[in-house]
Structure to design on (235 residues):
């Protein structure tokens, strides 16, 4: 669509229609109310970046394993970037993608459930491609990193084929490989840094994620577990 409020919202609407197939892509040049994680907005200059959503129907996946959807999407973007640029690329828990420690891609996954199974999943991706100036200081783009411009259609196809490959890996039951790959690329794993939780700052070391995708941090000789709204990175 030339313009759209939010491709995730549009995709969720399409999920209500009985004949919307798995793999349906909703994409726009200009998102006027892009939504981010934790109720944030997603800003993207019209026509310069990719803002799109893909509808998946992972009927094979139990709801308790939903973090694996974050894992496959983060890895797909990571895989694409590894093919495209040489700079350091990390996945910042739970699913921001960083290049040179700057955010290049945000992911918003929204689900519709029935019992313990998924009926529809909308994977929303905002990927900075050709925009080189950002109002937000810690953002970057493919063009800023590599100093050239890109054909958006080619970048889209690259991202989608990597997403399909990781989705197939999940469907084939290779969750252990996916989780190991995710941890290998996790930002600041096994390093001591400062975090903030419950209005307190503390030093700790990310040691992994638990089976629900919560962050495991070793601090003051013990392990603590944090959900998405419960912790932020300080430095
Ligand atoms: C975040 O980092 O907070 C997640 C940002 C996700 C943005 C994408 S852009 C396409 C899709 N539609 C939305 O409204 N949001 C996602």
């Amino acid at each position: 669509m030339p313009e759209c409020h939010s491709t995730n919202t549009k995709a969720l609407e399409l999920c209500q229609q009985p004949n919307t197939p798995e793999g349906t892509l909703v994409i726009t040049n200009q998102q006027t109310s892009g939504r981010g994680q934790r109720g944030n907005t997603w800003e993207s200059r019209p026509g310069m970046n990719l803002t799109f959503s893909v509808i998946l129907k992972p009927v094979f996946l139990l709801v308790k394993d939903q973090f694996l959807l974050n894992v496959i999407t983060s890895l797909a973007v990571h895989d694409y970037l590894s093919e495209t640029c040489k700079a350091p690329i990390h996945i910042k828990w739970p699913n921001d993608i960083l290049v040179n420690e700057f955010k290049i891609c945000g992911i918003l996954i929204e689900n519709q459930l029935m019992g313990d199974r998924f009926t529809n999943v909308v994977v929303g991706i905002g990927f900075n491609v050709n925009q080189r100036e950002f109002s937000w200081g810690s953002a970057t783009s493919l063009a800023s990193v590599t100093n050239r411009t890109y054909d958006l259609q080619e970048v889209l196809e690259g991202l989608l084929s990597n997403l399909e490959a990781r989705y197939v890996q999940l469907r084939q039951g290779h969750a252990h490989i996916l989780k190991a790959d995710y941890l290998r690329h996790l930002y600041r794993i096994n390093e001591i840094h400062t975090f903030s939780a419950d209005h307190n700052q503390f030093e700790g070391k990310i040691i992994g994620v638990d089976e629900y995708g919560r962050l495991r941090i070793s601090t003051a000789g013990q392990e603590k577990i944090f959900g998405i709204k419960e912790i932020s990175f300080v430095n």
